[in-house]
């Protein structure tokens, strides 16, 4: 695989950026391939190698790259002079907010942010203001973005199950007193935590599926979280940043659960930097600037037109049949890929939740490298997901490349050098 230009770009960036990096998760050794452009479900690196993109910017690009409808919507907004955020209401805010409220029954009112990290920050702030309490409960191995208080679990590449009790550097230790960690899917543990801390808990914050290891939440666990939150006067915040792609209205709508607050990002923004949080009217109205002492939430770029336009175009192409098709492709692909690893007698295993897939094996980085060599762009930690430009022919291509990648891994294990 040619990589001279990726190496040169890495060296150039490393002179002006620490480790040539501005997003920790994108680095792998010795240097990551640098991407030049993308179209549909394919991307090309700066050396001209092409890949089927199975990362899709960690699920944000559900319609792949440069989808004509998304590009057109963004161009239209830019041509209207709305390329930048404006400090005023614009119709596009209503267009996306109406779509979000009509898709998810628990969302009466919504606000926009620039990322899902910020959406989580603001949802927690809302819960604290609403309840007058400070504490939150979240899973030790949950991921809710890079905000201090939700990074306390230490969940990262090195600690996929969280590093409870170890406050990561740069995060004030004092915060450890107000964040409590629950074992995911353990109702008894949640009950115990609520008995201990319930009177000071503002919110239970959960992902319906632990995204970074693809562990599905038990609907009974999430239902119990809602019940317990209400029993103790707290709120349930469901972080559907990833799971909103699995069903119109998100995971909660599929399971008939109504969270008090919901946080979203990625899919709802058509690949652009936008997050949103929303929920029940009686909670969200604390942001209404017409009431005495409203809760303030600022952001120069909140609700910026290009992102809103991309988000509307993205959601308009995600009706239930489109989502079902994508989940079906995920089911088919996961089964085929898992079968390949088993038949070859390797430990390469694949599981999925609809259009989200995860590969596990003893040496994920070696397998990641093998996939790159065979034209498959998967996350170094093994996450994968489907995009709407994919179809049965693309699945066939992925399967053929996967077989070769598994073969490469076996050759590496056996100490044999494979060309390319
Ligand atoms: C469940 C969940 N919440 C929040 C975030 C943070 O999103 P962002 O990176 O847009 O801030 C992520 C990102 O992967 C996520 O998976």
List keywords for this structure.
alpha/beta; Aspartate Aminotransferase, domain 2; 4-stranded mixed beta sheet; 13 helices; 420 residues; Aspartate Aminotransferase, domain 1
Helix and strand arrangement:
Elements: H1 4-14, E1 35-39, E2 42-45, E3 50-53, H2 68-79, H3 91-103, E4 109-113, H4 116-131, E5 135-139, H5 148-151, E6 179-182, H6 187-197, E7 201-206, E8 209-210, E9 215-216, H7 219-231, E10 235-239, H8 250-254, E11 261-264, E12 275-279, H9 281-284, H10 305-316, H11 320-343, E13 349-353, E14 356-360, H12 364-373, E15 376-377, E16 383-385, H13 392-413
Parallel strand pairs: 3-15, 5-6, 5-7, 7-10, 10-11
Antiparallel strand pairs: 1-2, 2-3, 4-12, 8-9, 11-12, 13-14, 14-16
Helix pairs in contact: 2-10, 3-10, 6-7, 11-13, 12-13
Pyridoxal-5'-phosphate binds at residues 58, 115-117, 120, 143-145, 207, 211, 239, 241-242, 265, 275.
């Amino acid at each position: 695989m040619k990589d001279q230009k990726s190496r040169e770009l890495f060296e150039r960036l490393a002179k002006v950026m620490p480790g040539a990096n501005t997003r920790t998760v994108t680095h792998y050794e010795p240097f990551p391939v640098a991407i030049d452009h993308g179209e549909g479900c394919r991307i090309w690196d700066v050396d001209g190698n092409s890949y089927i993109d199975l990362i899709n910017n960690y699920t944000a690009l559900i319609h792949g790259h440069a989808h004509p409808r998304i590009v057109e919507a963004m161009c239209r907004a830019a041509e209207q002079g709305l390329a930048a955020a404006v400090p005023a209401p614009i119709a596009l805010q209503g267009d996306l907010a109406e779509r979000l409220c009509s898709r998810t029954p628990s969302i009466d009112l919504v606000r926009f942010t620039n990322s899902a990290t910020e959406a989580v920050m603001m949802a927690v702030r809302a819960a604290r203001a609403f309840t007058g309490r400070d504490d939150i409960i979240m899973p030790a191995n949950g991921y809710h973005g890079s905000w201090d208080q939700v990074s306390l679990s230490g969940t990262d590449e090195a600690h996929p199950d969280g590093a409870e009790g170890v406050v990561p550097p740069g995060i004030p230790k004092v915060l450890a007193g107000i964040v409590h960690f629950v074992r995911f899917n353990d109702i008894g543990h949640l009950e115990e935590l609520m008995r201990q801390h319930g009177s000071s808990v503002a919110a239970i914050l959960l992902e319906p599926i632990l995204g970074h290891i693809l562990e599905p939440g038990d609907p009974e666990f999430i239902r119990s979280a809602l019940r317990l939150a209400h029993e103790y006067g707290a709120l349930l915040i469901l972080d559907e940043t990833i799971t909103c792609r699995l069903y119109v209205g998100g995971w909660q709508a599929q399971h008939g659960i109504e969270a008090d607050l919901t946080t979203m990002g990625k899919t709802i923004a058509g690949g652009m930097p936008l997050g949103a949080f929303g929920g029940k009217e009686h909670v969200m109205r604390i942001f209404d600037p017409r009431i005495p002492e409203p809760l303030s939430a600022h952001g120069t770029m909140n609700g910026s037109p290009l992102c809103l336009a991309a988000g509307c175009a993205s959601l308009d192409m995600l009706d239930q049949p489109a989502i079902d098709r994508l989940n079906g492709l995920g089911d088919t692909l996961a089964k085929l890929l898992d079968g390949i690893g088993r038949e070859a007698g390797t430990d390469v295993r694949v599981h999925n939740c609809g259009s989200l897939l995860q590969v596990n094996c003893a040496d994920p980085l070696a397998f990641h490298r093998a996939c790159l060599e065979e034209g498959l762009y998967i996350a170094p930690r093994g996450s994968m997901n489907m995009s709407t430009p994919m179809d049965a022919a693309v699945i066939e291509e992925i399967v053929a490349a996967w077989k070769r990648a598994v073969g490469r891994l076996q050759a590496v294990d056996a100490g044999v050098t494979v060309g390319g």
